[in-house]
Write a structure and sequence with these properties.
The chain has 164 residues and is mainly beta. It is built from one helix and 13 strands; from the N terminus they run ββαβββββββββββ. A five-stranded antiparallel β-sheet has the order 2-5-8-11-12, with no helix packed on it. The protein has a five-stranded antiparallel β-sheet with strand order 3-4-9-10-13, with no helix packed on it. β6 and β7 form a beta hairpin. 5% of the residues are buried.
Amino acid sequence: MSNGNDFTIFEAKAHDRTDFKSIITSTKDITVPQYNMRIGFYLNQSRTKGLEINFDHTKYVVTNYQRLHIKGNIDEKYIDTDTILDPKKLLHFEHTDGANFLHFNYFQLNTLLKHKTKDRDIFSSIWKVGVGFNIPRTDFTWHGEELNNRFHIAGYNASVEGGS
């Protein structure tokens, strides 16, 4: 898409596409809905420490025909104006093959309160720390021409979680 194109779109709105309606309305148009998979294993016999791999398949779709501000060079012309985001005249952008997140976590469970007579926890906490990659596949339409990119690492993520 280069050809003198270097611009920023400000405050674009987007939405997810769960695709559960397609399962009910038309089986020929069925698509894979958003999903999350998590698998893990314990590192010790007391089952208080472990590792997990998490994969989130989410969908991100920039909403067409919204009014937004665009600034920069398009087709070698400088613009700084509000416009309607029309996929046939300008662009459409989505990650419906996934704004995929692959994440690796270490977790630990802690007993905060144990039953006095029975061998069980009454109150416990969990914390996790993890790192991962963002692996999208972008569907992009430029002036009505559809371009479909390959899966690629587009960024990194890190997280800390806790609960009780």
